[in-house]
Specification:
This protein has 129 residues and is an alpha/beta fold. The protein is built from 4 helices and 4 strands, in the order βαβαβαβα.
């Protein structure tokens, strides 16, 4: 049974990081969690869209913050976790949603740099939080 936010004490409010929270599934998840009283830390590379998600989280009745984060960068992820814990005093969950895709390119035309960027975001980025 899901409790309404009016029945949740401040001590029981969960804190969640949502990576890739500036649009799509990440934004929708952040808003849905906010409606349940969860405090949300939005992580994304796009500042304007991330701040818009925070506004939508607040409109949904919860608290949120935005931290510009590239999940492929360990220092960014470390900073994200530290800022979240500093603001909310805890971190309960991470919704590791950030990812990227590339335009279909013939194998021989793909670059090592692009491959590394995709792998660092889609594979390593999921494991860093």
């Amino acid at each position: 049974m899901v409790q309404s936010t009016s029945m949740i004490s401040l001590e029981d409010q969960k804190v969640v990081i949502v990576t890739g929270g500036s649009s799509g599934i990440g934004r929708a998840t952040a808003i849905a969690l906010a409606k349940q009283g969860v405090k949300i830390s939005i992580a994304a590379r796009r500042i304007n869209e991330g701040e818009e998600t925070v506004r939508l989280v607040k409109d949904a009745g919860s608290d949120g913050m935005f931290v510009k984060t590239d999940v492929a960068n360990e220092d960014d992820v470390r900073s994200l976790v530290e800022k979240t814990v500093n603001k909310y005093g805890r971190l309960d969950y991470a919704f590791n949603n950030a990812g990227m895709e590339e335009i279909m390119t013939p194998f021989l035309d793909q670059t090592t740099e692009k491959f590394d960027q995709i792998m660092n975001t889609n594979v390593r980025g999921l494991a860093t939080i």
